[in-house]
Design brief:
Number of strands: 17
CATH architecture of the largest domain: 3-Layer(aba) Sandwich
CATH class of the largest domain: Alpha Beta
Number of helices: 7
Largest sheet: 9 strands, mixed
Order of helices and strands: HEEEEEEEEEEHEHEEHEHEEHHE
Helix content: 10-25%
CATH topology of the largest domain: QueA-like
Shape: globular
Strand content: 25-35%
CATH superfamily of the largest domain: QueA-like
Radius of gyration: 20 Å
Strand order of the largest sheet: 2-1-17-16-14-3-12-13-15
Structural class: alpha/beta
Number of domains: 2
């Protein structure tokens, strides 16, 4: 599976939260690309309501981000970062030891608070993820005490966990922030409602998404409530668009359909990978961040809008110097 390829200049990597660069977390740019005529509009996120219509349904992911990174000490005394991705049954957890590709010799890692992590086996043949046993009674409480947000090398400095939460975050469980929703403010949500745009919620707990590799997404837990399924049905019936805020929302909605393509209430684990070949059955529009070259998320964008459209939009984003990553600018496909 290949996706749109390009070169991302380092200076286009957002290195700090938008509120430290400008007037607030909603002070980001918005690239709007229209599928019907391939038009590109350069706007600001605060202008989002003018690109949506009364009767549209905006679907939000209310997962909350965990402080899912800790410093681990190997048996040889070297310190590495250990990223916690996904809890499993029986006290096991999927983790990512941040070591150079191909490095071996890991077995037991020593964590803060006298805790050990025993790496048992690679997770589903992954090159970077492991199943580990962590000797703590409550992983969330442990991370709340000793963890910090997952960050990558392009970030300047460390920021508290609040910088990695959306204003509608409720259910803790994501290793990394679903960043498409970060720019929303409570004022924006009120403005959308006043315009006649409806809002619905679901949960998908995002695992780690290492930038050094483009593996297919692994299983993630999701919940689509009955109320949200009904809102989607009503939006379709009245001719409104289902607007997903983030690729996590697309994955959850497209994982929760019956044989006729109708969204139903469900919960569980999804390993769905959305490609142009698979297509989408529910989502009509997408608000998302700007994704790295060849990332699997780009294949999802191509499933919604087609490769030529995505390539045109990304060429425009590069040409106009938009910013990438979780603190960067946004892209609305309508």
């Amino acid at each position: 599976m290949t996706a749109v390829d390009f070169v991302l200049p380092p200076e286009l990597e957002a290195r700090e939260p938008a509120e430290l660069r400008g007037a607030g977390r909603d002070d980001v740019r918005l690239l709007v690309s229209r599928r019907d005529d391939d038009a590109i509009v350069h706007a600001h996120f605060r202008e989002l309501p003018r690109f949506l219509d009364a009767g549209d349904l905006v679907v939000l992911n209310t997962t909350a981000t965990l402080p899912a990174a800790v410093t681990a000490i190997r048996d040889d005394g070297d310190a590495i970062d250990l990223h916690f991705s996904t809890p499993l049954m029986g006290g096991l957890v999927v983790v990512e030891p941040r070591v150079p590709a191909g490095q071996t010799g890991l077995s037991v890692l020593h964590l803060p608070g006298g805790v050990t992590a025993t790496l048992l086996t690679p997770y589903r043949d992954s090159r970077r993820l492991w199943i580990a046993r962590i000797d703590v009674p409550n992983l969330r409480e442990y991370l709340a005490q000793f963890g910090r947000p997952i960050t990558y090398s392009y970030i300047d400095g460390r920021f508290g966990i609040d910088a990695y939460q959306t204003v509608f975050a409720r259910e803790p469980g994501s290793a990394e922030m679903p960043s498409a929703g970060r720019a929303f403010t409570r004022g924006m949500l009120v403005c959308l409602r006043r315009r006649g745009v409806r809002l619905a919620k679901l949960v998908l707990h995002a695992g780690v998404a290492s930038l050094e590799t483009h593996e297919r997404p692994h299983e993630e837990y999701f919940e689509v409530p009955l109320r949200t399924a009904e809102e989607v049905r009503r939006a379709k019936e009245r001719g409104g668009r289902v607007v997903a805020v983030g690729t996590t929302v697309v994955r959850a909605l497209e994982s929760s359909v019956d044989r006729r393509g109708n969204v139903i209430a469900s919960r569980g684990w999804t390993d769905l990978v959305i490609t142009p070949e698979r297509g989408v059955r529910v989502v009509d529009a997408l608000l998302t961040g700007l994704h790295e070259p060849r990332a699997t998320h780009l294949a999802m964008l191509e499933a919604i809008a087609g490769r030529e459209h995505v390539a045109r939009a990304y060429a425009a984003a590069l040409g106009e110097r938009y910013l990438w990553h979780e603190f960067g600018d946004l892209h609305l496909i309508v």
